[in-house]
Design brief:
Helices cover 74% and strands 0% of the residues. The protein is mainly α.
Length: 183
């Protein structure tokens, strides 16, 4: 009989397993490509200082997301930078094949998604990303972020509403110039 024992993960093992997740999460929070390596390193330095991850109510990804959210927030407060467009090089590589018209439409839709995400406050954006894009449960998000599950549901509800409004507004703004040209 196999004994299923939850294993403690040190920062090195966390990095091996979850660095891609952390980088993706930070980009969706609005981190620039030029800052990404440093921010990912900072996340895993915090994980190291905390002694790694021990399984409990939180999953490793939601625990790291909580650290990444705080690292990103701290970085933004320190730099007070103006908003810039997210790095799309990876998306461009993935969309490199196929119909150029479809590629352009997909790039515009992805840019609208990122712009709509950036219009959410950071706490709601983090929950929206973890639930909608990463597939985490509300219970795991609550445990990872150290907040009540009811707060997760409330923030997710408001984030979804604001995201839909922002995306619709951005879509209409993109379509308006086309309508004028067609007339």
């Amino acid at each position: 009989m196999l004994s299923v024992m939850a294993e403690h993960l040190d920062a090195a093992e966390l990095f091996r397993r979850h660095a891609t997740f952390v980088a993706s999460f930070l980009v969706r929070l609005g981190a620039l490509r030029s800052e990404l390596d440093d921010l990912v390193q900072d996340v895993f330095l915090v994980a190291h200082r905390r002694g790694g991850f021990s399984p409990g109510p939180a999953r490793a990804t939601t625990w790291l997301a909580q650290i990444a959210l705080r690292v990103h927030s701290s970085h933004r407060r320190k730099t007070r930078r103006r908003p810039e467009q997210p790095d799309t090089a990876r998306v461009d590589q993935e969309l490199g094949r196929g119909d150029p018209g479809q590629k352009a439409q997909t790039q515009q839709a992805l840019a609208r998604v990122q712009q709509a995400l950036e219009q959410l406050d950071e706490d709601k954006r983090a929950i929206f990303i973890l639930f909608e894009l990463q597939g985490e449960s509300c219970e795991a998000i609550a445990a990872g972020l150290g907040i009540p599950v009811g707060t997760v549901y409330s923030r997710l509800h408001h984030a979804r509403k604001r995201f839909r409004q922002a995306y619709k507004r951005l879509s209409l703004a993109d379509e308006t110039p086309r309508r004028r040209r067609a007339v």
